[in-house]
């Protein structure tokens, strides 16, 4: 097929470009700017081919037209090879579930470009033997002068071919950590948590050591983190380990893996303190600092509600004249806060002021971090919690089926009053929906009051009966008949008898 003013190769190149563009346009939408640029380059070569075919006068004009045509045909071939490479490496191979690294594909396309250049030079009458000898010398000179560049190129090729590093991986290089966003010929780009783009030469990654965090090829990608804290030597290590390890394992903390389970170990001793480390597995490296903070909050809350202080360097200055007055003021404010918490509970409404004062002195601070389990369904615990700040949720797990949200409670609510008064197992699992500030009242704190006033058992039984009936309604729903609820809920007399037996009043 001969078209006026065009070289014999041009019609075939045009046909090939159109067919290849149809094949790659939709699958490679993300590369549309590159496709447009290649198409514009090809169109420019066609225009050059047409101009070279126009009549030219004189020897010089014909020689210039000949060189223009050679360059145009060479450019047309480059464009076709570019589209052919995209169709093969980016469309055909992925459909066959075969993938090669982008850098290797680029190298193969460049080799095809070089081969096409030698082919066109040979057709133009250039002696290739001299060219090969000259190119060998030039290659040696370039290899010596571009060692770092070649090292980066080969490093990028090796990284992509052995899959030791992939886009999306989180890595740490020395004191730098970030997510891999691109692997180019010369460098690997990282995006840090501060939003900084860091360019790391590929040769540095190949020569040095880097760490892949939460390797996606593991059965469960996770990164072990260590949280250190110190506790006074007077506290039993077994107690500290059991409390902290149990709390973190039970709590619902975002990005903390359930398995492997968190573990607490005694690492070292210092002047007056024991050094502990809580080890947990992080699921998302991007949230390392926020998750570490959440875990520290849970550790602190666990230690505080069990009366354990962190061992820190304290510098206290006592002002003798004002110290006593300030201390009394702080204690007075705390007592008022505790009395306010006691007065908010219906269970203690019939107590005298002196009895409420006694209970207020027995309260123990019990903070909980968001996600902590305050009480667990079926557990035996002879105390109650009074919520001062925060919100908690009560969940009930039926014998069969998914657990059910019974209710949410905020400041002024109480959990565990039935367990405190009768010793009965917990009816629901209560989880802190936010950070919760609470007070705990143990059985021993109420023992002396009810021993002095046994008649309180009958008064409290009516309140507990209503509370149990409310639980039954939440568990079963209001569709159930009241007779069935009455059969499930103990009467006041039965509850009063259980209170007397639990406190040994009979």
UniProtKB/TrEMBL annotation:
<feature type="transmembrane region" description="Helical">
    <location>
        <begin position="12"/>
        <end position="28"/>
    </location>
</feature>
<feature type="transmembrane region" description="Helical">
    <location>
        <begin position="40"/>
        <end position="59"/>
    </location>
</feature>
<dbReference type="InterPro" id="IPR011066">
    <property type="entry name" value="MscS_channel_C_sf"/>
</dbReference>
<keyword id="KW-0812">Transmembrane</keyword>
<feature type="transmembrane region" description="Helical">
    <location>
        <begin position="100"/>
        <end position="119"/>
    </location>
</feature>
<keyword id="KW-1003">Cell membrane</keyword>
<protein>
    <submittedName>
        <fullName>Mechanosensitive ion channel family protein</fullName>
    </submittedName>
</protein>
<keyword id="KW-1133">Transmembrane helix</keyword>
<keyword id="KW-0472">Membrane</keyword>
<dbReference type="Pfam" id="PF00924">
    <property type="entry name" value="MS_channel_2nd"/>
</dbReference>
<feature type="transmembrane region" description="Helical">
    <location>
        <begin position="71"/>
        <end position="93"/>
    </location>
</feature>
<dbReference type="InterPro" id="IPR006685">
    <property type="entry name" value="MscS_channel_2nd"/>
</dbReference>
<dbReference type="InterPro" id="IPR018490">
    <property type="entry name" value="cNMP-bd_dom_sf"/>
</dbReference>
<feature type="domain" description="Cyclic nucleotide-binding">
    <location>
        <begin position="347"/>
        <end position="467"/>
    </location>
</feature>
<dbReference type="InterPro" id="IPR014710">
    <property type="entry name" value="RmlC-like_jellyroll"/>
</dbReference>
<dbReference type="InterPro" id="IPR023408">
    <property type="entry name" value="MscS_beta-dom_sf"/>
</dbReference>
<dbReference type="InterPro" id="IPR000595">
    <property type="entry name" value="cNMP-bd_dom"/>
</dbReference>
<dbReference type="Pfam" id="PF00027">
    <property type="entry name" value="cNMP_binding"/>
</dbReference>
<dbReference type="InterPro" id="IPR010920">
    <property type="entry name" value="LSM_dom_sf"/>
</dbReference>
